[in-house]
C-alpha cells in the first residue's frame, strides 16, 4: 500500500466509524422496541412536526354581510339593507317576511321588516331621488315613510317608520343615510322595532325585498 492510497482510506474509515457511532444506538433502540420504532417518527421528523403544530394557525374569519342584487348588470349592487338587521321573525304581531299573514289572513304582508333599534340610522335601500314622504297610518304623524324612485332601474322603494332626514326631490345614493328609526312601541306595544321595506319592480308590482337583499359569507384576513 503506498502513501496515497493510505491517505484516501483513512478519512473514509473515519467516516464509517463516525456513522456507526451515530446509528448504533438507534439500531439498538429499534431492536429493543421494534414496535415503538416503527410507529414513532424519527426525532428530527418529530421536532419538525412539533414545530409546525406549535406555529400559530392563521385564523380565517368569516363574516356574514348583506349583499344587494345587481339588476342592471353594471357590477354594482342596486339594493341595500336599510337597517343592517335580519328580517323580523315571529312576535305577537306576526312575522316580518314578505307575504306573511295579516288580519287573520285577510291580507298579506307587502314588505319585509328589517329589525332595528329605535333611533338608529336608516340607509337608502336604493339609489334615486326622494319622491314622497308620507304617513304610514292616517292620524299617526310620528310614523312616516320615505319613498325613493330610481328612474333608470324602474324600481321604487318605500321605507316605513322612519323619521326622515331628507326632503322630497333630494337625490340619495344607495346606502346613504335617509333618517332615523322610529319606535313602534306606542302603536304596537311589545313589537320588534323595525323598518318595513316595500320594493316595487318596474310596472309597480310589490316584490320580496329579501330576494334582492341577501346574506353572503366573506372571508376576512
Ligand atoms: Zn311590515
UniProtKB/TrEMBL annotation:
Keywords per UniProt: Disulfide bond, Metal-binding, Signal, Zinc
Molecular function terms, GO-annotated: metal ion binding
Gene3D superfamilies membership: Glucose Permease (Domain IIA) (2.70.70.10)
Signal sequence residues: 1-30
SUPFAM superfamilies, A to Z: Duplicated hybrid motif
Residue ranges of every copy of the M23ase beta-sheet core domain listed in the record: 108-208
CDD domains xref list: M23_peptidase (cd12797)
Family: Belongs to the LECT2/MIM-1 family.
Protein name: Peptidase M23
Amino acid at each position: 500500500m503506498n502513501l496515497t492510497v493510505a491517505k484516501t482510506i483513512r478519512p473514509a474509515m473515519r467516516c464509517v466509524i463516525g456513522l456507526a457511532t451515530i446509528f448504533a444506538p438507534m439500531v439498538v433502540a429499534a431492536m429493543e422496541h421494534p414496535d415503538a420504532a416503527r410507529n414513532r417518527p424519527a426525532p428530527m421528523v418529530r421536532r419538525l412536526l412539533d414545530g409546525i403544530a406549535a406555529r400559530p394557525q392563521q385564523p380565517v374569519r368569516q363574516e356574514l354581510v348583506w349583499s344587494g342584487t345587481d339588476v342592471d348588470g353594471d357590477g354594482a349592487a342596486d339594493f341595500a339593507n336599510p337597517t343592517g338587521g335580519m328580517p323580523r321573525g315571529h312576535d305577537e304581531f306576526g312575522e316580518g317576511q314578505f307575504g306573511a299573514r295579516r288580519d287573520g289572513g285577510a291580507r298579506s304582508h307587502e314588505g319585509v321588516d328589517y329589525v332595528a333599534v329605535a333611533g338608529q340610522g336608516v340607509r337608502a335601500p336604493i339609489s334615486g331621488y326622494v319622491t314622497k314622504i308620507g304617513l304610514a297610518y292616517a292620524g299617526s304623524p310620528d310614523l312616516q315613510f320615505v319613498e325613493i324612485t330610481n328612474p333608470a332601474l324602474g324600481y321604487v322603494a318605500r321605507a316605513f317608520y322612519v323619521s326622515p332626514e331628507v326632503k322630497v326631490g333630494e337625490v340619495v345614493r344607495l346606502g346613504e343615510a335617509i333618517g332615523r328609526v322610529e319606535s313602534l312601541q306606542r302603536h304596537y306595544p311589545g313589537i320588534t322595532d323595525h323598518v318595513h321595506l316595500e320594493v316595487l319592480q318596474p310596472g309597480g308590482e310589490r316584490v320580496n325585498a329579501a330576494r334582492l337583499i341577501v346574506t353572503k359569507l366573506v372571508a376576512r384576513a
